[in-house]
Amino acid sequence: MERLDPQPPASDPVWKGHKPGDGAIYARVCLSDALGQAAGADALPGVFWAAEAPAVNVDPEQLAREAVDRMLLTGPDIASPTPTGRYLVGMPVWMWANQGPTTYGPNTASASLAGVTVTATAKVTRIDWAMGDGGTVTCQGPGTKYVASYGKQDSPTCGHTYTRTSASRHGGKYTVAATAIWTVDWQVNDGGETGQFTEVRQSQEQVAVGELQVVR
Questions:
Q1: Which CATH number characterizes residue 125's domain?
Q2: Which of 69, 83, 87, 136 sits at 20 to 30 Å (Cα–Cα) from 129?
Q3: What is the reported pLDDT for 113?
Q4: Can you tell me the distance from the alpha carbon of 174 to that of 179, in angstroms, rounded to the nearest whole number?
Q5: Same domain, 172 and 89
Q6: Same-domain status, 34 and 137
Q7: Which residue has the higher pLDDT, 38 or 70?
Q8: Is 55 inside any structural domain?
Q9: Mean pLDDT in the chain?
Q10: Alpha helix stretches (DSSP H) within 75-186
């Protein structure tokens, strides 16, 4: 609840027969209403008269979730494997993702209501890869970028080896899905309550896997 400032004139019907000084006019503000107004929404919250300021109960975790909505978090920005890559049965595939504020973090935002401000910080703590052939890989970081000098060795952090081609799949490609697990730490400003929750975002790529043909 928020006390209107300025208060409506004494002639306003919202006073319901009361006079200024007998109490005050307050706005009933839901969390979504408050954030909508901050974004420029035209809707006004309900208003009412009260002799004393009503108590306000603010859920800090809900404020933290609203802060996360402002971050516009997405699934991983998959750098490898890619649709234009050339992948072969029996050859190690290195998976890695580019790191940015909305695709990997850290990302920080705040939300406020009724004098309470919560700051949330989100960061990807792992990426779960579904490789399209039934194989799954869990990587604790963004993965290691491949360079030619690594040759045919396995990725030290995030890799997979296909054992059959994607020829029989729709479009001749595997659908690779990378699911980011975001950990969100939040705190009420000025050293107040703290908490943590997770958010999940996914990205996909279509990847063709073939066989090396030996000509004799």
A1: 2.60.40.10
A2: 69
A3: 86
A4: 16
A5: yes
A6: no
A7: 70
A8: no
A9: 87
A10: none
